[in-house]
Amino acid sequence: MRDVMRWKNVALLALAVLVVGCSSNSKKELPPADLPDFEEEVRLDKQWSRSIGEGQGETFNMLVPAVDGEQIYAADVEGLVMALDRKSGDLIWKQDLELPVSGAVGAGYGLVVLGTLKGEVIALDAGSGEEKWRARVTSEVLAAPAVNADVVLVQTQDDRLIAFDADTGAQRWIYESTPAVLTLRGTGSPVLTNRLAIAGLSSGKVVALDAQRGLPVWEQRVAIPQGRSELDRVVDIDGGLLLSGGTLYAVSYQGRVAALNLQDGRILWQREASSSVGVAQGFGNVYVSLASGTVEGIDERSASALWSNDALARRQLSAPEVFSSYVAFGDLEGYLHLISQVDGRFVGRVRIDSDGLRARPLVVGDWLYAFGNGGKLVALTIR
């Protein structure tokens, strides 16, 4: 078993490199594309900036902040958790867990919830930062837990979904599935509604469970593993799921981007795509950052590409987010890019953190929050 785990850890590291554009068939890896010149149409104003400890760390974490009400919560890789006023950036409280945080941040219903590399789930009081409970899970937690009024839902690296009582931390149920032989390092954050608990798995499937009991409601395959080698057959759904109204969006690595009916999992449309970071939706379109560094706008009515912007090839783009009339995303050099939802042209750019920007931007109304790899949390608005 030890040898198997050692092989899997090596494979995870290799696949992390694969995601960012390295080709095993290339004698020399191509460098990231140079930043293109363009005529700036949109100016971003920095409202405030805060340092959140050590930031994302070196293990390709995706520690995305969370907003609940007028507070924003952020955590660094070493367990520093901070609550800030989202408009002023003023510190409300901070808590140092002194633990390797890898799944952060889930917030809502009076809780701030985090997961660790040591397989722990920790719930803090959203008002004071005091610990309310902690629980153990079966393996590391690499994405933010989800919260509703009744349960906290956690997805672990070994493709288990575990629900805890939101008040006490007692385990309610566990759903187990068989993970793929090789996987990317990471999982997407699960989606939790009042009725359903939904997650994307390393097998390329999306599962929906009854949120109260953990019983399967439906299952749908988004990607089918293909190829002779296990590397070719990696189809993880790691970018997280996006729920908009009654439609659920998912994208897999080396697979497809798809829209599913929330109630029964029926595929509404699908299109070939390869991404490990996720999608955004707006103006009747879906936007996806592909593993190659291309950003695509997809028409939901026809599932055809409206436009494709490949000017940022191999720049390790973050997941996109819709911001006003634009699509925002980060890159490996810490630039936040804005492109038009209409035609994909560049309209704005600002550098957030010289250590890089791989976490999905967070948009709340007219405000955008970007959390850089080095720990800079910046609040921006459009001038």
Automatic annotation (TrEMBL):
Gene3D superfamilies: YVTN repeat-like/Quinoprotein amine dehydrogenase (2.130.10.10). It is a lipid-anchor. This is Outer membrane protein assembly factor BamB. Keywords: Cell outer membrane, Lipoprotein, Membrane, Palmitate, Signal. Belongs to the BamB family. Pfam families: PQQ_2. Its main location: membrane. Part of the Bam complex. It is found in: Cell outer membrane. Residues 78-309 form the Pyrrolo-quinoline quinone repeat domain. InterPro entries: BamB, PQQ_b-propeller_rpt, PQQ_rpt_dom, Quinoprotein_ADH-like_sf, WD40/YVTN_repeat-like_dom_sf.
